[in-house]
Amino acid sequence: MPPADGGAGFSQSLERGLAVLSSFTPERPELGISELARMLALTRSTTHRYVATLAALGYLHQDDATRRYRLGPRVLDLGFAVLGSLELREIAAPHLRRLAETTGHTANLAVLDDIDAILIDRVRGRPCRYHHFEYSLHIGSRLPLYCSATGKTLLAFLPRPELDRLLDRIDLTQRGPRTLTDRTALTAELAQVRRSGIAVNDEELDRALRSIAAPVRSRSGEVVAAINLAIPWSPVPICELVTQLGGTIQATARQIAARVV
């Protein structure tokens, strides 16, 4: 773990405790003491002391069988507290509810976070036969930028140098039957999103999963978020769904934007 110089008020113990928590990711949900010590360049005894403290406070949980650790429920409390304090989420909430009620589909609000779109609010639509992936999503879920409607919306309006830097770091792997895995084709689609103000996911993230998204702008014109409707698969072509729902989604995005600083 590289040293940090935070001045006279800097707490190395707090830094190390947060570094322990940050080591757990969706790809590494469980870690042992030896792994953590190696990742953080700490001794086993030092690592064990921090882990034991975090476990006692509820931020980590140890599996009795494997003796490995995973994030505990107190971490969720912190995450939801942050989400609850987001002004954008508070502004958007009534508009998302109205969008879901009007269309019957699940409405989502997402922001850019590194190479992912992270859902910061979600309003379920009317009960129906939703896609299994749809059921697994929740506030805090991360979606890949290149094959989700919200992600493509957030990518499309970035300055070109920043967009290129992000695309350099994204592995365009096949996720659904229609995933764009060619960077030139993806870049061309992002240009179309900029022109139309609408992005779609037509079975790109997963089979039988489709969605339509639009950008939410600040008063300066910067795209600060994206909203989308998740639509269960049907024989209706995606272009017809855009015709039916695109204007409503864009109008909702403008209503949210009108209150964003």
CATH superfamily of the largest domain: GAF domain
Low-confidence stretches: none
Report the total helices. 10
Average of per-residue pLDDT values: 88
Element order, helices and strands?
Answer: HHHEEHHEEHEHHHEEEH
Helical proportion, percent range: 40-55%
Overall radius of gyration: 21 Å
Quick structural overview:
With 261 residues, the chain is α+β, with helices and mostly antiparallel strands.
What does this structure look like?
- This protein is of the alpha+beta class.
- It folds into 2 domains: 12-72, Orthogonal Bundle (Arc Repressor Mutant, subunit A); 86-257, 2-Layer Sandwich (Beta-Lactamase), CATH 3.30.450.
- 46% of the residues lie in helices and 18% in strands.
- The chain contains 10 helices and 8 strands.
- The strands form 2 sheets. The chain has a 6-stranded antiparallel beta sheet with strand order 5-4-3-8-7-6, with helices on both faces. A two-stranded antiparallel ribbon has the order 1-2.
- A hairpin with a 5-residue loop joins strand 7 (209-217) and strand 8 (223-232).
- Helix 5 runs antiparallel to helix 10 (238-257).
- The longest helix is centred in the C-terminal third of the chain and has 20 residues, at 238-257.
- It is elongated and about 60 Å long.
- The two termini are 37 Å apart.
- The mean pLDDT is 88.
